[in-house]
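Weekly structure sync, notes
Attendees: PL (lead), two postdocs, one rotation student
Agenda item 3: pending single-chain targets
PL asked that the sequence for the first pending target be pasted directly into the notes so everyone works from the same version. It is reproduced below exactly as submitted, 204 residues in total.
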Amino acid sequence: MTRPLVICDCDEVLLHFVGPFGDYLTAEHDLSLHLDTFALSGNIRRADGTSIEPTGFMPLLNGFFDTHMVTQTPAPGAATALAALAERCDIVILTNVDDRHSPVRTAELARHGMPYRVVCNNGPKGAPVKALMDEYGASAGAFIDDLPPHHTSVKRVAPSVYRLHMVADPRLHALIPAAPDADARIDDWFTALPALQAALGVTP
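Predicted structure, written out during the meeting:
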């Protein structure tokens, strides 16, 4: 019998992103990140309070991933929860970063106790989730991500996969409403672990 497959996002699920990204903007570009909404591209401001142009967001984001991924810290309980799941499940990290960032992302996750396969993606995650489920021939699947549109995509393409909406940074909880197409919203790994084990049929 094949094992269940856990497909998990990285930023603001396994590793904190918003805090380190804000620190990078300040230290390297004399910019500040304001958490008025979750639209990061509209909340990066200069010292005079004006927002950067939308075209300036992606170079800043890529600059962070190019040089500052090593500043990201793990979400509490993430490594322990994945290790418990890995006893009876396969684990894949599905992350929306460029392929060139895969070696550092893989190394950083391993350094924080999460030595799992990393798959880079660009855009909606439904199709890659379906492809991974097919590749592994998984008996059941779970998908964990912080962004509601990805849950909608997975529900449409791979509806049998259990979808858990998780946002690791407490400052973002009120800014990101519960994903309507997720099966559950749980924002900490200590509570999420038994829910995932039950959904996948691997309860100890």
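Discussion points:
- Residues 75 and 191 are 13 Å apart (CA to CA).
- Residues 18-71 form one domain.
Action: rotation student to compare against the earlier draft before next sync.
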